[in-house]
Each structure stands twice: as C-alpha cells, then as structure tokens.
Amino acid sequence: MPTPASTPMTSHKPARGAGLYLSAIFLFSVMSAIVKALSDTVPAGEAVFFRSFFAFPLILIPLIARGELQDGLKTARPLDHIIRGVIGTLAMGLMFAGLGMISLPEATAITFAAPLFVVILAAIILGEKIRAIRISAVGIGLVGVVIMIWPRLGNGLAAADMAAVGALCILGATAARAYVQIHVRRMVTTEKPATIVFYFTLTSTVAALFTLPFGWVVPDGQTLVLLILTGIIGGAGQILITFSYRYAPASFLAPYDYSSMLFALVIGYVWFSEVPTVMVLSGAALVIAGNALVIWRERQLGLERARQRGMADQKG
C-alpha cells in the first residue's frame, strides 16, 4: 500500500479549482472589509489571533466527524509547516495593519503584485531561469506598483502620513504571500489541505499571542462577533484556496485574483464610501498587464513542454 508521501494528492480538474479559488477570494474580501472596519479599535495582532483561533473548528470538526483526526494531522514535513506558518502570519499581520491605513481598493490593487514577486522568488529559491519576456513583465508590473504607492510616499514616512506606512505594509504582505504560494504549491503534492491549514492556523494563533503586550483591547459584544466572524470566514477561505491548488496549477488560477478588485470596489464603495484614484487604477492596470504577460508566457512554456514530452513518447 503506497504511503501518503509517495501518492500524488493533486488532480487536473480546472473548473473545480477555479470555483474554489473564486469562492475563497470573495470570502477573503469580506474578511478584509471586517478587519478594516475594526482597525480603529482592534490592533492588528489581536485581529490575527481571532482570525486564526476561531478558524480551528472549521478544520477540526470535519476531521473528527470522519474519524480522520489522527491521520489528518500527521505530517512528514514539520519544518515546512513552521516556515509556511511564520511567513503566512507575517503576511497576515502586515495586511491587517495596512488595511487600517489605506482604502480597500488601493490595498487590493497593491496585492496584485504577488504573481510578479512569485516570478522573482521562483528564480531565487527554485533556480528558475527568467528570460526577456518575463523580465519585461516584471518590469511593467513593478512600474505599476510604483505608480500606485508613489503618491503615498511623496511626503516621506512621517508619523502623520500613515497612508505611506500602510502602502508599504501591504507591499510587504504581498511579497510574503508570494513566497507562501510557492511553498504551499510544493507542499500539496504530499500534504493534506487540512493538515496544511491546521498547522498554519496553530502557528499564527501562537505567534499572535506575542503581540499581547502591545495593547490588546477588550472587545464589546458587536466587535467580538465580528472578530469571531473573521476567523470563521478566513478559515473557510483558507481551506478553499488550499483545495483549489489540488485541482489546478497556480498559473491557471492566477487570473482569478483580479476578481478581488471587483469585490473590493463594490465593498469599499458601499461600506466605506471609497473611490479609487486615477493613479491607483492606472498602476493596477500596468500590474495586471505585467501579470497577464507572465501568465501567457507560462502557458506557452507549458504547451512547449507538452509537445516535447509527446515527441519523446513517440520516439520511445
């Protein structure tokens, strides 16, 4: 009987992967709006704790109901889970902090740089070669990022200009998230999605407790309910997005990230009366163009590799 480490746990079902991914993006957009609404009263570290701690039931209850708790939490890659947990927690904390300082559409637009960071990190971490087309795509996208954040940085990083700090927090969260995407994609080939989500949630819950001395607040009833909802909604989104990578590759799912801008525009306008600036929209357009070029190039390389395999099979 094959062991979990030797049995592939992915399959090619792109429609299912896309549906799971879109559902996750929507849930994350709602969660971000709740965190933003609470940002004036709840510190980012406390929000991370509630987001993590109250996601546990969504992970544990299905495993207990199916009698799979013991097997579901087994792992042969504990160090990978720790790395994923620490960097994922950092990304979450920076994102939550930044959401309280800039508009929801602006924060969402900056996160579109994640695929560009994936290309850069893949070259550094995995040793992938970056040729002219992908270098150009990254360059175009990074120009878009600069256009979006430049108005925020124009006055420097003075304490009074928290929007500049917020934009940099979101950018840092985006870079960390890009690393997590590479890391998780490698992990899902052998690790169960529930296992990955469980250990991330455990790590982020414990890590968030270290921010307790920096000024947690005692939430009132309404705030407590909203904080608990961030955990439930975020946990559900994390499970869905982890499952989506089992059914479709990251390059296929990447374009669906842009649906978050639509969700952010609607939620930002209705909930916070936010309207994105021309600079944000222009920069976002360039980032999307760069991402589209990366996605096109990845698909071309995929087709080329498929043809080469087919020719090799015919010769064999």
What this model shows, in words?
The protein has helices at residues 14-38, 44-53, 56-65, 69-72, 78-99, 104-111, 114-125, 132-153, 162-187, 193-209, 221-247, 250-253, 259-272, 278-315. It has 316 residues and is mainly alpha-helical. It has one domain. α2 crosses α11. The longest helix is centred in the last third of the chain and has 38 residues, at 278-315.
SSE layout and pairings?
Elements: H1 14-38, H2 44-53, H3 56-65, H4 69-72, H5 78-99, H6 104-111, H7 114-125, H8 132-153, H9 162-187, H10 193-209, H11 221-247, H12 250-253, H13 259-272, H14 278-315
Helix pairs in contact: 1-11, 1-13, 2-5, 2-10, 2-11, 3-10, 3-11, 5-9, 5-10, 6-9, 6-13, 6-14, 7-8, 7-9, 8-9, 8-14, 10-11
Strand content: under 5%
- Nearest-angstrom radius of gyration? 20 Å
Report the structural category. Answer: mainly alpha
Give the N-terminus to C-terminus distance in angstroms.
30 Å
State the order of secondary-structure elements, H for helix, E for strand. HHHHHHHHHHHHHH
Give short descriptive properties of this protein.
mainly alpha; single chain; about 325 residues; disordered N terminus
Summed up:
By secondary structure, the chain is an all-alpha fold. The chain contains 14 helices and no strands.
